[in-house]
């Protein structure tokens, strides 16, 4: 049921304040007078000790689910101190990459049925790793075959392009990082800042959804383009990959997410006054590096749209004539949840304006159950 919306993707983008609320329900504890704020993931509580003892955490997934895991890698490394590596399921299988008994392998999948991810799970089980699932579908193959896990509880997602499941996956993985990180005093202020920001996140997403019309106007300017680059780094490298994936899969426009730190090692050759480039430059530890990237793109007359934190327009428009998209600021590790929303809206409007099928893009399936 699409309610008042024209498409499922549109509905699912706009219901993110509610889906995020459901994802967090019963899992965040505010803490009384003497009790610190904390998270409770029922599906993991008996396994946290084993996870904390593991030598490595390996995230495994495909498509949007892989991107969600990538955005959560820095906070998991920071809070747990355990090395975190990333695997695209098919690539792990192609290489028959090493997986050990001392590893915790985390399988991220909205449907819980993706063939590549499921085969990678069988492979990790054979190799003796502790296997954790993060899925939206209760009773799915991944939920059943993992040792333990967390349901993201985002509600049924129908649009082939994943939107609300992506943001809920990021929230679950931030909670996972908090749970694995435990209650070290040294991290207490950081943990509380993240939990406070989680409580407020649905409001911030409601606020960023007000950019709908602005993103439709931007889509009108981009409607006839051949290509769109998206630059990000740090927490928002994943946002660049996921934004580009949305544009590619539904708007059928070539789009690439680029790690801004790699700009000088190739991508800079593409920059001219025609190619549109979206730069994510919200406030975090990488901000000044992104300012310098923007300066260098300006120097080559790049056609920029810069996403920045509210109030930062002047700090990112360094003498150039870029368009600016201002978004509300949240704690750095949750900023990808806010930042993806304008890109989801852009992909949606581009698709409708270009006259393509938003909910069922050509050649793609919601759940890829063959290899
Ligand atoms: C569970 C209940 C929820 C109830 C809550 C009350 C289910 C599905 N969830 O939620 O309805 O309100 O307790 O305390 O009944 N699991 C995996 N692999 C996965 C995902 C989950 O093995 O990929 C396992 C978990 O380890 C856990 C179970 O499935 O044993 C349920 O997981 P989850 O729904 O996340 O647990 P709770 O949030 O505690
Ligand atoms: C398909 C979907 O390719 O599978 C994508 O079209 C999705 O949207 C990918 O990200 C992985 O799916 P899942 O269910 O494992 O998260």
UniProtKB/TrEMBL annotation:
Task: Name the reaction it catalyses.
Answer: D-fructose 6-phosphate + L-glutamine = D-glucosamine 6-phosphate + L-glutamate
EC class, as a word, reads transferase
Pathway it acts in? Nucleotide-sugar biosynthesis; UDP-N-acetyl-alpha-D-glucosamine biosynthesis; alpha-D-glucosamine 6-phosphate from D-fructose 6-phosphate: step 1/1
- The EC designation for this entry is 2.6.1.16
Q: Name one GO molecular function term.
A: carbohydrate derivative binding
The SIS domain, residue ranges: 47-186, 218-361
Q: Name one GO biological process term.
A: UDP-N-acetylglucosamine metabolic process
Q: Which domain of life is it from?
A: Eukaryota
The alphabetical list of record keywords is: Aminotransferase, Glutamine amidotransferase, Repeat, Transferase
Q: What is this protein called?
A: glutamine--fructose-6-phosphate transaminase (isomerizing)
Whole-protein coverage range: 330 to 700 of 700
């Amino acid at each position: 049921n699409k309610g008042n919306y024209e498409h499922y993707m549109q509905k699912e983008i706009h219901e993110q304040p509610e889906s995020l609320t459901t994802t967090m329900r019963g899992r965040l504890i505010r803490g009384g007078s003497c009790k610190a704020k904390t998270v409770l993931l029922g599906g993991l509580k008996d396994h946290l000790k084993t996870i904390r003892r593991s030598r490595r955490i390996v995230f495994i997934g495909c498509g949007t689910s892989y991107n969600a895991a990538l955005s959560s890698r820095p906070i998991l490394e920071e809070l747990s101190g355990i090395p975190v590596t990333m695997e695209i399921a098919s690539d792990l299988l192609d290489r028959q990459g090493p997986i050990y008994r001392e590893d915790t392998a985390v399988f991220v999948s909205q449907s819980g049925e993706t063939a590549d991810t499921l085969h990678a799970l069988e492979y990790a089980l054979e190799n003796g790793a502790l296997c954790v699932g993060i899925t939206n579908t209760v009773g799915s193959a991944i939920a059943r075959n993992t040792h333990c896990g967390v349901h993201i509880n985002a509600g049924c997602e129908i649009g082939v392009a994943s939107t609300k499941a992506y943001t809920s996956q990021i929230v679950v993985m931030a909670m996972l990082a908090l749970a694995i990180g435990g209650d070290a005093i040294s991290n207490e202020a950081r943990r509380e800042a993240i939990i406070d920001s989680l409580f407020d996140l649905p409001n911030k997403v409601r606020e960023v959804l007000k950019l709908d019309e602005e993103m439709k106007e931007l889509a009108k300017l981009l409607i006839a383009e051949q290509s769109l680059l998206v630059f990000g780094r740090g927490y928002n490298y994943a946002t660049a990959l996921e934004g580009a994936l949305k544009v590619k899969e539904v708007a059928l426009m070539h789009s690439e997410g680029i790690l801004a730190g790699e700009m000088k090692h190739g991508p800079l050759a593409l920059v001219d006054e025609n190619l549109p480039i979206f730069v994510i430059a919200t406030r975090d530890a990488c901000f000044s590096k992104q300012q310098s990237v923007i300066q260098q793109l300006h120097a080559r007359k790049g056609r920029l749209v810069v996403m920045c934190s509210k109030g930062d327009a002047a700090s990112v428009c360094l003498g150039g004539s870029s368009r600016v998209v201002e978004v509300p600021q949240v704690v750095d590790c949750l900023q990808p949840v806010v930042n993806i929303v304008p890109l989801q809206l852009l992909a949606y409007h581009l698709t409708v304006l270009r006259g393509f099928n938003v909910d069922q893009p050509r050649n793609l399936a919601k759940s890829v159950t063959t290899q």
